[in-house]
């Protein structure tokens, strides 16, 4: 009495799946010869693959010879199972790809105030791409000082932030986005607003009441404030703007943020070729973060946006 191997396939490997694809083509073409052009391999190679598959399955799948090609009873059942298996693989691929195309979930992003006027609009463009890619994604923006943005990313309440790159905090990754220039301004009503450029010597500027920020800045930028007579402070750039527009102080503002008031004749840059500084803006994320398709899609869009 002959015995048949039990469970000849402990698992289905990539190679077996390849053999099953060849088997499906042979069946659908009606034989080895007809399958040659579809598979792009010769009849002898097809025959070897079929013999290999039969050996691995422990089953006779088809009759071949002068009488022509015909499936055995086991071959018909394996063919139906092959269709189910390959269909399930294709469904799996489609569903996974669909997750990338149709993102779901939230993006919690923390921003330093007044980045919306940046001409590059990289953040705005990246958010637009994310929303196009994932219409169901919920975007939550929190406007806070840079230190709070970094702490939010570290603590996990924010997925990503955009802050001035002062120094890399342990546990965070920084992706440089663009450089931002800040100029020294005063507003209409200030004694220096109509002063001639040649009268604006450093001593006169440094004697004016000035505004200092309370958020972190690079050491080379802090030197610009140390020479000023800072008698007021602000936790963010909107606060600086409020104080500037009183006409009682001088202070530094990002040029893109101040531009609207300059155009209206309400702000004036003081010695703009000399009294300025630049800070790199960076996207910040947590090191070792869990995989998050929404966040990765946003970062990819941010990296490609110019």
From TrEMBL:
Keywords per UniProt: DNA-binding, Transcription, Transcription regulation
GO molecular function terms attached to this record: DNA-binding transcription factor activity; transcription cis-regulatory region binding
Keyword Chloroplast: no
HTH lysR-type domain segment(s): 15-72
Entry similarity comment: Belongs to the LysR transcriptional regulatory family.
Protein name: DNA-binding transcriptional LysR family regulator
Organism of this sequence: Pseudomonas fluvialis
């Amino acid at each position: 009495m002959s015995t048949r191997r039990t469970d000849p396939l402990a698992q289905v490997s990539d190679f077996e799946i390849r053999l099953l694809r060849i088997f499906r083509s042979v069946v659908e073409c009606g034989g080895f010869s007809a399958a040659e052009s579809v598979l792009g391999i010769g009849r002898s190679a097809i025959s070897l693959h079929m013999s290999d598959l039969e050996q691995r399955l422990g089953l006779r799948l088809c009759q071949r010879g002068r009488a022509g090609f015909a499936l055995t009873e086991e071959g018909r059942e394996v063919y139906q199972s092959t269709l189910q298996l390959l269909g399930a693989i294709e469904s799996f691929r489609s569903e996974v790809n669909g997750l990338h195309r149709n993102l779901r979930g939230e993006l919690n992003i923390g921003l330093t105030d007044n980045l919306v006027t940046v001409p590059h609009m990289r953040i705005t463009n990246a958010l637009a791409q994310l929303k196009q890619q994932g219409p169901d994604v919920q975007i939550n923006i929190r406007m806070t000082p840079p230190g709070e943005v970094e702490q939010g990313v570290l603590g996990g309440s924010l997925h990503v932030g955009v802050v001035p790159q002062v120094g890399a905090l342990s546990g965070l990754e920084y992706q440089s986005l663009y450089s931002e220039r800040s100029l020294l301004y005063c507003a209409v009503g200030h004694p220096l607003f109509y002063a001639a450029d040649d009268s604006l010597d450093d001593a006169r500027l440094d004697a004016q009441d000035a505004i200092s920020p309370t958020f972190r800045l690079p050491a080379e930028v802090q030197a610009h404030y140390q020479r000023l007579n800072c008698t007021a402070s602000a936790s963010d750039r909107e606060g600086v703007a409020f104080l500037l527009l009183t006409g009682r102080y001088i202070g530094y503002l990002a040029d893109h943020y101040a531009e609207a008031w300059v155009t209206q004749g309400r702000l004036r840059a003081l010695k703009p070729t000399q009294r300025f500084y630049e800070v790199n803006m960076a996207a910040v994320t947590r090191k070792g973060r869990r995989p998050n398709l929404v966040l990765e899609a946003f970062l990819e869009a941010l990296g490609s946006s110019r």
